[in-house]
Amino acid sequence: xxxxxxxxxxxxxxxxxxxxxxxxxxxxxxxxxxxxxxxxxxxxxxxxxxxxxxxxxxxxxxxxxxxxxxxxxxxxxxxxxxxxxxxxxxxxxxxxxxxxxxxxxxxxxxxxxxxxxxxxxxxxxxxxxxxxxxxxxxxxxxxxxxxxxxxxxxxxxxxxxxxxxxxxxxxxxxxxxxxxxxxxxxxxxxxxxxxxxxxxxxxxxxxxxxxxxxxxxxxxxxxxxxxxxxxxxxxxxxxxxxxxxxxxxxxxxxxxxxxxxxxxxxxxxxxxxxxxxxxxxxxxxxxxxxxxxxxxxxxxxxxxxxxxxxxxxxxxxxxxxxxxxxxxxxxxxxxxxxxxxxxxxxxxxxxxxxxxxxxxxxxxxxxxxxxxxxxxxxxxxxxxxxxxxxxxxxxxxxxxxxxxxxxxxxxxxxxxxxxxxxxxxxxxxxxxxxxxxxxxxxxxxxxxxxxxxxxxxxxxxxxxxxxxxxxxxxxxxxxxxxxxxxxx
Length: 488
Ligand code: NAD
Hints:
40% of the residues lie in helices and 22% in strands. The relative contact order is 0.14. The chain has helices at 2-6, 45-63, 67-83, 85-96, 100-121, 158-171, 186-198, 212-221, 234-244, 269-281, 298-312, 333-348, 387-390, 406-414, 429-438, 471-477; strands at 9-10, 13-15, 18-20, 25-30, 35-41, 129-132, 137-145, 148-152, 175-179, 205-207, 227-231, 250-254, 259-263, 291-297, 352-355, 377-380, 397-403, 418-419, 421-425, 443-446, 461-462, 465-466, 479-487. The chain has a 7-stranded mixed β-sheet, sandwiched between helices. Strands 10-9-8-11-12-22 form a 6-stranded mixed β-sheet, sandwiched between helices.
C-alpha cells in the first residue's frame, strides 16, 4: 500500500460526458512538500476541438430546457459537492498549498453556494418592456443563451472561481468548455465525476486541462466559442484580447489588483487590525482582493504599525493540513522566488522590513522543508513609486505608509494602474461616503473586508478588468439580448 499511496494521480479531460486520456501530461506539484504528485493532461488544439464539438452538440437540448429544469440540476450538483465537501477541501489544500481550514470554510462552501445561488437567481429575472402608446407600439426585450462559453480560471481559488463561471453560464442555457489552471486542476476533475449523477447532460460541461499558452489559447482562438470569461492576470488578459479580436468575442475579464486599505485616525483599531491582517495575508496573500498598500493617518501610524506587526508575528506558517496553521504554502517555487524578490527590492530601495522574509526565521516541520513557504511580511517606508507599491505581488507582503489628509490619500490610493478592491476604515460616515465615491475601485469595503452579496456587481476598473459578475451582471454577460417591437 505504500507504493500505492505514492502512485501519481493522473487526471483526464472530460469531453462529451466521458473521461478521455491525453497523449502528453504536465507534472503538478504539492506546494507544501515540493513533490510531484499529479499529472495533468497537456491538452492542445485537438482536445479543445473535441470539447467544443461536444459542447456545440449539447447546446440545442440544454438551451431549450426551462430555467426551472436547469435550476434543479444545479441544485443537485451543489448537494453532491457538499456531500463530498471534506474530500474536495483536502484535495484543494494539497493541490494549491492553502490551509485545509481555508479550503473547508471558504473555497468549497463557496463553490457549493455558487451553484445554489445561480440555481435560484436564474428563476427571478425579468426582461424589459416599454410602451409607446402614441405610435401604437410596445417594445420588449428577450434574452437567449449565447452558445459555447469558454471559461478560463486561475490557481488561487481553483474550484471557487471556476464554479463562479460554470454556474451562471449553464444556468443561462449555455454549454461550456472550461480550462482550469494547469497548477490546480484536481478539484475541477473531481467535480466532473459528479456531473452525470447531478443530471447534467453529456457535453454541457466539458473540461480540458493544460497550459494557458496551448490549451487556453486554442479555446480563445476557436471560432465556435463566441464568449470568453477569464479570471487571471492583466498580462494574460491583454493576450486574450488580442487573440479574440479577429472574432470580436464577448469578453469578461477579472484581473489583478493593488488594493489599498485607508485607515483614518478615528478607525476602530480593534476591528481594523485583525481584518487588515486577514485582508493582507489570507490564502497566503494570493487573493486578487488582498490588501497590499496600507495607508495610515499620521496620528495613529506608530501605534498601528506596532500592533499590526506584533499580530503578524503571531501568524503560524506551516503544514496546510495542521488546523492551527494560519498560512500554508505559496503556489510554486517560481512564484515564491518572485514574491521574495519584491522584498529584496524594497530593502535595496531603503524601505524597512519589519517582520517576515529576511527578518524572522521560519521553522518548518520535517515533511515540509521543501515546500514553498514564507512568513507574513510587513514593509514600511516604501516610496509610492516603488514597484512594491505599484505592482501586484500576489503573496504575503504588505506595505504600510503614513498619510496626512483625505485629499492626499485618495490621490495616492488611485495612483496605480489597478482598480479592484479598496478598504476604508473610519467611524465618520460622511468621510467614508466621500472617500468611497472617489476611489477608482470596483469594490469598496468600509470597516470590513470580503463581505459579498453575490447579487451585486463584482469586478475591477482600469487594469483590473472589463465587465462585472453577479446575479444580474452574469445573466447579462451569458445571454444575448434582443429588442422586439410590436405594432398593433
Ligand atoms: P494567469 O493569467 O497566469 O493564468 C490564468 C489562467 O489563464 C490559467 O488557467 C492559465 O493557464 C490561462 N492562460 C495563461 N496564458 C494564457 C493564454 N495565452 N491564453 C489563454 N489562457 C491563458 O493568472 P494566474 O497566475 O493563474 O492567477 C493569478 C492572477 O489572477 C493574479 O493577477 C490575480 O490578481 C488574478 N485574479 C483575479 C481575480 C478577480 O476576480 N479579479 C480573482 C483571482 C485571481
